[in-house]
Amino acid sequence: MTKNVIAFQGEPGAYSHQACRFYRPNMEAMPCRTFEDTIDAVRQGRAELAMLPVENSTYGRVADIHHLLPESGLHIVDEGFVRVRIGLLGVPGTRIEDVTQAMSHPVLLGQCRGFLREHDIQGIVGADTAGSAMEVARRGEKSLAALAAPLAAEIYGLDVLASGIEDRQNNTTRFLIMAREPDYSRRQNAQGGDVMMTTFVFRVRNIPAALYKAMGGFATNGINMTKLESYMVNGIFTATQFYADIEGHPEDPPVARALEELRYFTSSLEILGVYPSDPLRAEQQALGD
Fold first, then answer.
1. Is 175 labeled as catalytic in the residue annotation?
2. Residue 13's domain is classified under what CATH number?
3. How many domains does the chain have?
4. pLDDT, the chain, mean
5. pTM (2 decimals)?
6. Which end of the chain is more exposed for a tag (fewer CB within 10 A), N or C?
7. Same domain for 197 and 270?
8. Under a CB-based contact definition with an 8 Å cutoff, are residues 48 and 6 in contact?
9. Cα separation of 154 and 5, whole Å?
């Protein structure tokens, strides 16, 4: 296995690249074309870890990622929350009033509607955020800017014409760091916190009120379930898999009891990872209260 390399999806300067720099600053970040390529880089030993975005506080879960995680063969070993600070990036010497078009991924265009409208800038769709910055640098036109992370400006030699232009100032993306081998050890997060998270997927048995009964063990044992999502598998409406995050370690007696009860009502249950809760998780939860 190639040690000290972390793979991410996108061009250099993408928000996933920014997450790699922040959470694994001593590792070499390796760009990959797709999420599948990112996962394969770890499976094939070309990278030690993968940085994968799973959800955004504004736009919800990242499309297709929940289908990929259980089939990846990888294990979650850490999580990270990255504030999405969007910059308007232009070629050197550009002023905001020179810009008539801004290129970016559709999700970022939707997050800056107020700023674009205020400055009479037309949004145009690019392949992704960092790729748009690369295209702006290639064209060298003052009328065209990119919406991307400030890191992309550093990489492609662009000026940051405006920063923090997103409509929602708490816009945050959650990332999962994944490895070939699981790590079930109890460990602290970057600030010394000892709250552990457990992520798993399951399918309920074909019995009446199976999901209700399956969830009962978490309520009676006082387990905080921070996420529960369902999605179809194999394109079949009646084949539903559930993805869940809970606070706690599988060896904690209340968690062990809840998982034992869950197994009774499920046809399959797979733990995807056990990892320390990121310090910013509590901050995000406070914003939602």
1. yes
2. 3.40.190.10
3. 3
4. 91
5. 0.89
6. C
7. yes
8. yes
9. 21
Closest CA to 269 of 259, 283, 279: 259
Residues pairing with 274 in the sheet: 198
Average pLDDT over residues 139-153: 96
- Report CA 256 to chain centroid distance, whole Å: 27
Residue 284 has pLDDT above 70, yes or no: no
115 is a catalytic site residue: no
Quick one: 102 and 133 in the same domain? yes
Distances (CA, A) of 248 to 29, 186, 243, 278, 288: 30, 10, 16, 13, 20
* Gap between the Cα atoms of 200 and 33, Å rounded: 27
Q: Say yes or no to pLDDT of 59 above 90.
A: no
Compute the residue count for the chain: 289
Q: 282 and 210 share a domain?
A: yes
Q: 274 — phi, psi (to 5°)?
A: -130, 125
Amino acid at 127: A
* Distance separating alpha carbons of residues 212 and 12, to the nearest angstrom: 45
Provide the 8-state DSSP code for 48: S
- Residue 91's contacts (CB-CB under 8 Å, 6 or more residues apart) are 136, 137, 140, 141, 142, 158, 159
Q: Which of 38, 94, 129, 173 is catalytic?
A: 173
Q: Say yes or no: 244 and 264 in one domain.
A: yes
In terms of domains, do 71 and 136 share one? no
3-state secondary structure of 34: coil
Residue with structure tokens 């990332």? 175
Q: Tell me the residue range of the domain where 60 lies.
A: 5-83+171-176
